[in-house]
């Protein structure tokens, strides 16, 4: 611990009298909720994809736990089934996961307790950065006292990660031949949940504008530049939102 | 061993999972942590980065609704868009109740599916 920075001394020194374990359990309890169910829906889809690609149960579970980002998992699954080399597969997966970098970067100042949180904890927690956990964290963490945030999110992701891995394994073993309407409804859960929870996570004008620009630019870039569309609409839409918010702020001052 | 021999070994898929899967994904998360450094939440750079991440997720949302894979892709576009819009309206009317909003969107989708198809 030590390393008390006087600048942060005023930050709710007594805000977490109940300690690490209490907040960890609170995070675990928060995971019995909608985001976990929605993520399970997505991974059930991966389980049937993995069956078609002839992956083993152990491989499916390892991919779920260690990669923990559905797009990367789907890219690797197709690389494994088509016999692509290690280097080519790594490049393809890395390209599909660049989006995690700005997400991890934006989460850190929200997650850490000033200088007190050791970097290894942040690096370890960053493994769980994926859209679902990120949206959950950006929505809920700002309301918690700073010392509570790492244990709370750790409890949340521990339960989400293990229960999603378990459900993926069960789905793989049962190979459910889901009726199309059930499969379709499961697929629809993800974007609707993301849409609504992002709207409650965006507090600043720049983020609200970014949400709007992303919704419009995403489909446009998808038609014009498939492949690079996510990154393009992220950078272009995000920069436009940032610039416009800055302009509006200056006007007001 | 040739490339084909290597790919036939029992450990090849695990090497792929750890190097091409785990490392290739987590490297970006670690770079994100290191790039955030000691930047303040309210700093201009992080405000821009957060806007980029938000726009990126918004474009994922739009893509999943407008160009879905699998069985959802068979449904008409207007049904998916109206499910999302009605879900949003119910979310706002219920004072940001996620379960209510998501439930309403799913009800519209499933109801429309049963009627139309």
UniProtKB/TrEMBL annotation, chain A:
InterPro entries: Brnchd-chn_aa_trnsp_permease. The keyword Transmembrane applies. The chain crosses the membrane at residues 20-45, 57-80, 86-108, 120-138, 150-174, 181-201, 221-245. This is AzlC family protein. It comes from Pseudovibrio exalbescens. It holds the Pfam family AzlC. Keywords: Membrane, Transmembrane, Transmembrane helix. The keyword Protein biosynthesis does not apply.
UniProtKB/TrEMBL annotation, chain B:
Coiled coil: none annotated. It holds the Pfam family AzlD. Keywords: Membrane, Transmembrane, Transmembrane helix. InterPro entries: Brnchd-chn_aa_trnsp_AzlD (IPR008407). It comes from the Bacteria. The chain crosses the membrane at residues 12-36, 48-66, 72-91, 98-116. The keyword Ribosomal protein does not apply. This is Branched-chain amino acid transport. It comes from Pseudovibrio exalbescens.
């Amino acid at each position: 611990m030590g390393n008390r920075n006087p600048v942060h001394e005023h930050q709710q020194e007594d805000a977490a009298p109940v300690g690490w374990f209490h907040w960890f359990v609170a995070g675990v309890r928060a995971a019995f909720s909608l985001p976990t169910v929605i993520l399970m829906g997505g991974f059930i889809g991966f389980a049937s994809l993995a069956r078609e690609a002839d992956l083993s149960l152990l491989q499916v579970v390892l991919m779920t736990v260690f990669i923990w980002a559905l797009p990367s998992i789907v890219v690797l699954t197709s690389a494994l089934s088509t016999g692509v080399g290690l280097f080519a597969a790594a490049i393809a997966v890395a390209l599909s996961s660049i989006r995690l970098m700005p997400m991890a970067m934006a989460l850190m100042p929200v997650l850490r307790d000033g200088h007190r949180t050791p970097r290894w904890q942040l690096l370890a927690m960053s493994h769980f950065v994926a859209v679902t956990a990120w949206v959950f964290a950006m929505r809920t963490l700002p309301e918690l006292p700073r010392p509570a945030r790492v244990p709370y999110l750790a409890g949340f992701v521990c339960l989400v990660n293990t229960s999603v891995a378990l459900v993926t394994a069960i789905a793989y073993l049962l190979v459910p031949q889901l009726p199309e309407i059930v499969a379709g409804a499961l697929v629809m859960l993800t974007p609707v949940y993301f849409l609504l929870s992002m709207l409650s996570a965006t507090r600043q004008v720049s983020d609200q504008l970014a949400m709007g620009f992303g919704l419009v630019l995403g489909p446009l870039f998808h038609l014009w530049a498939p492949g690079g569309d996510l990154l393009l609409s992220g950078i272009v839409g995000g920069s436009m939102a940032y610039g416009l918010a800055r302009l509006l702020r200056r006007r007001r001052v | 061993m040739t490339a084909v021999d290597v790919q036939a070994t029992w450990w090849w898929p695990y090497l792929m999972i750890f190097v091409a899967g785990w490392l290739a994904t987590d490297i970006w998360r670690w770079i994100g942590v290191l790039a955030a450094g000691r930047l303040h939440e309210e700093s201009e750079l992080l405000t821009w980065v957060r806007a980029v991440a938000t726009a990126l997720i918004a474009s994922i949302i739009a893509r999943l609704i407008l160009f879905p894979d699998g069985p959802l892709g068979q449904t008409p576009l207007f049904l998916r868009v109206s499910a999302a819009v009605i879900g949003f309206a119910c979310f706002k009317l219920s004072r940001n109740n996620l379960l209510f909003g998501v439930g309403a969107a799913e009800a519209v989708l499933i109801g429309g599916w049963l009627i139309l198809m």
